[in-house]
Every structure is written in structure tokens, then in C-alpha cells.
Design a protein that fits this description.
heterodimer, A: about 130 residues, Arc Repressor Mutant, subunit A, 2 domains, 3-stranded antiparallel sheet, 3 strands, about 10% strand, B: about 290 residues, alpha/beta, 4-stranded antiparallel sheet, 14 strands, about 35% helix
Chain lengths: ~130, ~290
């Protein structure tokens, strides 16, 4: 697991943690059943408050990404593959929404945007 | 969740200085930073907890019991670090330890020797020859060698150089892996508190301005900057205090979302540091006379 906290970011620290853990679960870097550090251990390692790590874990638990087993620790929950893909698609959609918005502001046309996308796709595939 | 410390409506009148209705709670397993400018009453509160100062009114509970009725019992479970290490200066740390250790039935020589080793404190050198950092580390080693569950420190980091301070803070943080331990420490070095505290209690002129989690403080307060045209009698109400300059204003809000609604995007919002919060609260009290 890898977590980088920025104190300068306007994103709250608990969100930085939950977002990064989520990303790693979605990308498969963290697998079902993998153990996560205890909230106290994580707080110590990241130089942040126990309350913050607790909140991050609570968020992740609420969204079904992790499970806490009393006395044993916290683990990556069994993930619903379809749901994961759905979530990833949703995040791509959100990003595209932003792109469309920016394009609109600049007066970039639908066709121009499509062309840009094609070029990016091609360069990725080659 | 049990509480290590519960203070309710604590008052003390010194004539020229008063503690007024001080209340706050420290849940077990967390670090609380007590901040405030000099003369805010931090040390008086700590001394009252330790029953070194008689309170006039109010209640102090340690581990769920009255701090005076169960004083001896409670003190065995507390490690106390004073702001000015007040030693028998001619003694060496080894001899001072021999004086202190018998007072505690749970004194643990292994922990003490481990701390002395880790902090690299000389055992046989007279204490008067110690640097400030050494003296503070000695205080801490003496305070933490009897399995204390509650560590109370009055300005433990003031007068220490940045490297030693960082070491100290890391050490405190490491202690917190044990969820039964709690720490209360006062400091006017707000960055230290920002680094390690879970809860922050801010005192000003003998009163508690707020006592809440560090995250709540971070989310509630913001530093707002913008053009002077945004500031009038109505919008001023949404700030703790504002100071205007020739080219714009700077103010502290304690309700970011509300302020954003009113000023919309014409202002800049930045994270408020504890120092900002202290500074603007001071302006506010001055304005109120």
C-alpha cells in the first residue's frame, strides 16, 4: 500500500487517504483479503491524527471497500467486479464531463474534441 | 469510549487573572494540545489538574474519579513533565532517579534505561551541566518510566531546537500506538500541536474558546482574502475578525461554507493555521475591549 499525504492540498486528509486506498483497490494493487494497517499504526506512519485515519477507514467501510474484523484487523473487502467497473466508468465519465465543460468554454467543437481523443487513443495504442 | 480527563466549569480567581468556566474532555487514547497566548491560563489549568493549585469552583475528573479524592491513585498513573525542569541540580540523573523511583510501585528500570539510551542522556553528569534539550529529555525519561497512562506536559517543546523537538514529537506519537495512553500538552508553539494533536483546546484570557478535534478545526476555520469592497457591516458578521489594508482585507471565518455563500468566489480561501486562529481571536478580544 502506498499513501502520500499533502498538507498543502485543499482536499481533506481523510479524503486523500480514502481516495488513494480506493484507487489501489480498483487498480488491483490491493487485493481482496489484503490486510490494512491499524488506524493507530497508519496514523503514526503518516504523521497524522488517529481521528483522521479512523474517519478515512469509516468512509471506506461505508462504501464497502474494506471490512473491519473485531480483534483481527482491517481487510480489503470482497469486491463486486461489476460494481468496481461501474465505479471506474463513473469516474471516467466525471472526468469527461469536465473536459466537455472546458472545451465548451473555449469554443472547441464536438468534432475537434473527437479528433483530439482519436489522436490520444492512437498514440496510446502504438 | 472512556475519558482520561474531564474538566467541567473550572474557575479560579487570582484577582488580576481568572479562569472562567473552563470545560473540556480528553477521551482515552488521544493527544490533546492546549494552546493559547502567554497568560491564557494553560499552566493554571494543568496545575489545577495536578492539584498544585486549589480550584475555586468546578470539577476535575481523572480516569473517571475526582482528582482530589483519589489523588494518590491518579498520580501513580500520571507522568508529569514540568515546563522548567526543577531539579536538584547538583545531582546526576542516576541519583535523581534513585530519589524518584521509590515513589512509584510500578517503576520500571528497563524502560528508564531504554529511554536514557535512546535519548543518549549521560547518567553520571551533574544536571546543572545539561543543555535544555538534555534536561527536557531527562524529565520525560523520569516521567515515563512508571507505566503512566496519562502524560501531562507543560510546554515540553519550548526552548528546544527544531531537531530535538521533532524527535520529541515523534516519540510522543509512537507512544500513541498504545490505545490506553493519553497525552495533554500545552504549548504556544502551535506548529507542534498541529503536528501531533488529535484534539485542540484553545484558551484565551482564562476561557476556553474551543475544544474540538483537529480535523474539525481545520474544516471550520479559513483565512479569507479579497478586495475591501467585500467588507461591510453585514459581511463582517461572518468573520471572527477582519483587518483591512490599502489593497485588500484578510479575515478569519469560523464558518467557511456560510462565508463562501455570501462572498461567493470573489474572495480567496486559504487554510487557517492555529497561529492565524490565535491571532485573529486576539484581535477580536481587543476590539471587544
Amino acid at each position: 500500500m502506498k499513501i502520500i499525504i499533502s498538507n498543502a492540498s485543499s482536499e481533506p486528509i481523510y479524503e486523500q487517504i480514502s481516495r488513494q486506498v480506493k484507487t489501489q483497490i480498483i487498480s488491483g494493487d490491493l487485493q481482496e483479503g489484503d490486510g490494512l494497517p491499524s488506524i493507530r499504526k497508519l496514523a503514526k506512519e503518516l504523521y497524522i491524527s488517529v481521528i483522521t485515519t479512523k474517519r478515512a477507514y469509516e468512509e471506506l467501510e461505508k462504501e464497502g471497500f474494506i471490512d473491519t474484523v473485531g480483534g483481527k484487523g482491517t481487510f480489503v473487502a470482497v469486491q463486486n467486479k461489476e460494481l468496481l467497473r461501474e465505479k471506474k466508468m463513473k469516474s471516467i465519465e466525471d472526468m469527461m464531463g469536465k473536459i466537455v465543460l472546458e472545451a465548451h468554454k473555449l469554443g472547441v467543437t464536438h468534432a475537434e474534441l473527437k479528433e483530439m481523443l482519436d489522436i490520444l487513443f492512437d498514440s496510446k495504442e502504438n | 469510549m472512556s475519558n482520561t480527563l474531564e474538566i467541567s466549569n473550572l474557575s479560579k480567581n487570582y484577582g488580576d487573572f481568572q479562569l472562567k468556566d473552563v470545560s473540556f474532555t480528553l477521551p482515552t487514547g488521544y493527544i490533546m494540545g492546549l494552546i493559547g497566548p502567554n497568560g491564557a491560563g494553560k499552566t493554571t489549568v494543568i496545575k489545577t489538574i495536578m492539584n498544585l493549585v486549589m480550584k475555586d469552583k468546578g470539577e476535575v475528573q481523572l480516569f473517571g474519579k475526582d482528582h482530589r479524592d483519589f489523588e494518590i491513585e491518579a498520580k501513580k498513573r500520571i507522568g508529569f513533565v514540568y515546563d522548567t525542569p526543577n531539579y536538584y541540580e547538583h545531582l546526576s540523573l542516576k541519583r535523581l532517579k534513585n530519589v524518584i523511583a521509590p515513589f512509584y510501585d510500578r517503576w520500571d528500570e528497563n524502560i528508564f534505561m531504554d529511554l536514557v539510551g535512546r535519548f543518549e542522556i549521560p547518567l553520571n553528569k551533574p544536571l546543572k551541566k545539561f543543555s535544555k534539550g538534555m534536561a527536557m529529555k531527562s524529565s520525560i525519561a523520569l516521567a515515563l518510566s512508571h507505566h503512566a497512562e496519562f502524560i501531562v506536559m507543560d510546554e515540553p517543546t519550548s526552548g528546544l531546537d527544531p531537531v530535538v523537538r521533532r524527535e520529541m514529537l515523534d516519540f510522543l506519537r509512537n507512544l500513541m500506538e498504545d490505545e490506553k495512553k493519553s497525552i495533554l500538552f500545552s504549548s504556544h508553539i502551535t506548529t507542534d500541536i498541529e503536528q501531533v494533536a488529535d484534539y485542540i483546546t484553545f484558551m484565551h484570557k482564562g476561557k476556553v474558546v474551543f475544544s474540538k478535534t483537529k480535523d474539525a478545526v481545520r474544516e471550520q476555520y479559513a483565512l479569507v482574502k479579497g478586495g475591501n469592497e467585500l467588507i461591510n457591516e453585514a459581511t463582517k458578521q461572518h468573520f471572527v475578525a477582519v483587518r483591512t489594508g490599502a489593497y485588500g482585507f484578510e479575515g478569519l471565518t469560523d464558518d467557511v461554507s456560510q462565508t463562501k455563500k455570501i462572498l461567493s468566489n470573489s474572495a480567496i480561501y486559504e487554510k487557517a493555521t492555529l497561529e492565524d486562529i490565535m491571532f485573529f481571536n486576539n484581535i477580536k478580544t481587543k476590539a471587544e475591549g
